[in-house]
Amino acid sequence: MSKQVGMSSTQLTKPIYIREWASAVGKKEGEGPLGQLFDFVGGDDLLGNKTWEEAESAFQKKAVSLLFEKDNEAYNRVRFILAGDLLGQEIASSFGLKDFRFPMFGLYGACSTCGESLSLGSMLVDGGFAEQVVCVTSSHFASAEKEFRYPLDYGSQRPPCSTWTVTGSGAYLLSREKHENRAQTPKDCGKNNPGDCAMESIASDLPRKCVIERKYEVAITAVTTGKIIDYGIKDSMNMGACMAPAACDTIYRHLKDFEREPEYYDKIITGDLGTVGQTVLLDLLKQKGFDISERHMDCGIEIFNSEEQGTNAGGSGCGCAASVLAAYLLPRLASGEWKRILFLPTGALLSKVSFNEGKSIPGIAHAVVIERM
Question: How much is the pTM?
Fold first, then answer.
């Protein structure tokens, strides 16, 4: 049976389970609306390191370490690790993961890297090339500002359309087999719904205490690979507008390839469009005959309280979609609140070289179907 669907989608032969997931974020993220849902919140965004780049590596290492703490049988069964970040030559991943000594694929999809790694990882496992793989990505506010804009000491102004790069990492363990021996973990906060968590949010270097009971396994069942879409936008402080056309294109192709309506999904969730990009996306899809306004979510909008935390249009960065998926979205599927989501991390494909040469900023978005089993 062919796994190819339509022009750009893939139907996996059988569900590829996300056996475990873990998130590690910075202090600002821990003070946001999702603060108590993250596995680890650092009280210091340097995590005891001398540079922001070393700190980002530490967040990525922490997320993967937490993954193996949750499933201590997995370490000797992992075949590949698929990782990426926003820094030149992916130094956050290479220095953060070198001690694990797994065969590694280094990926770059800008802020869509989480979707890219989950897509390729699930296809590797489905194709029989690996029993288990780890997918991980990260970003850091200060390292990204230095890489793409201005060092923090410059004190540049941020326009209302700008987004705030998330300091954090998300890691996932993909497997052909579900977790047969998963122990039920008691819920310390007494809430079944992540959105109902009423625990006080205090950033610390301690694991989070809000644990959501898993009633179901969750798995990836299909992917739609993104195309590079360039609308000629050159404003590096308006990432949402740069990426929204790519998100629109991938969602449209996905629905057409599988002959589905938006109502097939409980939520259609983009990675980091923010409030500006969300408006652009909804308008573009309406022009194509699809209205997803009732079921659209954006990780960049969810992770911060923009008015109180001064993040303008919302959050962004590789770590945005990755940490929100691990802390907020997958638990909603595992608890039974949702049945199926279309997860769509979005990326702006620029560098400081291309920007300084006056190039436009193309976008890309990779879609992953994640379902409760």
Answer: 0.90
